[in-house]
Write a structure and sequence with these properties.
Length: 158
C-alpha cells in the first residue's frame, strides 16, 4: 500500500438511523448492507478518527513506580469543516440530526486512490454539533460538524 492523498475522498450518511447499535453495527458486512448514499457536499477538511484507550495507572508503595494498563476505549470523534450550503441534502441531514434526538447514524468515507481492499471506512456516529462560522469579508461561510463515533470503525472494500 502506498501513501494516499485526501483529494477526491467523500463522506456519506443515511437518513435511516441505526436501530440497535449492538445488532446493527458489529461487523463490516452490517454497514455494507445498508444504503449509505447521501453525500455531504462541500467538505473542506476531515479530521482524525480511531480508537483510543484510557490509561489505568497503578503505583505500588513498594517501589513507587507507575505501571500503566490499558483500560476502556473510545472510538473518538470525527470533525469536518464544510462550506455551508443548507440546500445540500447531506448538510441538511446533518443539521437535522442535531435537533435533539439520540440516534446513531451510519457514515461511510470513500478514499479515492486507496488500495482497493481498504478504500472505504464505515462507522456509526451521533451528530453532536453543527456550528456556523461567518468569518471575515473574503471568506466563505463555513460550518464545523462534530460526529461522536458510537460503533466500531471498519475499513474495507466498498
Amino acid at each position: 500500500m502506498a501513501v494516499t492523498g485526501v483529494l477526491g475522498s467523500r463522506l456519506y450518511t443515511s437518513a435511516t438511523a441505526l436501530t440497535n447499535i449492538e445488532a446493527a453495527a458489529d461487523a463490516i458486512g452490517d454497514f455494507q448492507g445498508l444504503t449509505i448514499a447521501t453525500e455531504i457536499g462541500l467538505i473542506e477538511s476531515m479530521g482524525e478518527y480511531g480508537r483510543v484507550y484510557d490509561t489505568v495507572p497503578f503505583q505500588p508503595v513498594v517501589d513507587g513506580r507507575t505501571y500503566k494498563l490499558r483500560g476502556g476505549n473510545n472510538d473518538g470523534q470525527f470533525q469536518i469543516t464544510i462550506g455551508q450550503d443548507l440546500t445540500d441534502t447531506g448538510q441538511a441531514l446533518l443539521k437535522s440530526y442535531v435537533a435533539g434526538n439520540q440516534d446513531t447514524y451510519p457514515f461511510k468515507i470513500t478514499i479515492l486512490g486507496a488500495d482497493a481492499s481498504y478504500d472505504t471506512v464505515y462507522f456509526g456516529a451521533k451528530v453532536m454539533s453543527f456550528r456556523t462560522t461567518l468569518g471575515a469579508v473574503n471568506q466563505v461561510i463555513r460550518a464545523t460538524i462534530i460526529l461522536e463515533i458510537n460503533t466500531p470503525i471498519f475499513t474495507g472494500a466498498s
